[in-house]
Amino acid sequence: MSKKKFTETRIGKFLKNVAPKILSIIGDVIPSAGILGKAKDLIQKDSNISKEDKDIALKLLEIDVMEMQEVTKRWESDMASDSWLSKNVRPLTLVFFSLSYVAGWFLEYPLDSITGLLSLIVAAYFGSRGFEKIKSMGK
Questions:
Q1: 76, CA 20 to 30 Å: which among 91, 96, 109, 130?
Q2: Same structural domain for residues 132 and 75?
Q3: 2, 15, 106: which is closest to 61 by C-alpha?
Q4: HSE-up of residue 86 (Cα within 13 Å, Cβ side)
Q5: Are residues 90 and 135 in the same domain?
Q6: What is the DSSP letter of 2?
Q7: How many angstroms separate the CA atoms of 82 and 68, rounded?
Q8: DSSP per-residue string spanning 30-79
Q9: Domain that includes residue 17, residue range
């Protein structure tokens, strides 16, 4: 599951110009099914958005929901696999980049290029684990 903020999703970028008020309410949160449902309600109820823009926004919202579902399915498929590597590729990537970052820090290398990538990996790993736990509690 992607861990980008709502403002970084397709619908968030679209709402930046069309409905900044809605974006100011939920822009800094990590999208989830509940947040995207709330965004849909806000879009449908906002009288300042034209019918055409509402249609576009709702279609973009649908695309973002499908993207989240597909990423989750792919990760669930990896975990159900018999392959040791597919089950451990995310933790191994996290360990590798964490150790690389620490080694680079001690050796005083410029860490600009690895910092963003490591942040993305940490957010995806821990965010997806949290999402998977919440999803399993709902079942």
A1: 96
A2: no
A3: 15
A4: 10
A5: yes
A6: -
A7: 24
A8: PP-HHHHHHHHHHHHH-TTS-HHHHHHHHHHHHHHHHHHHHHHHHHHHHH
A9: 1-80
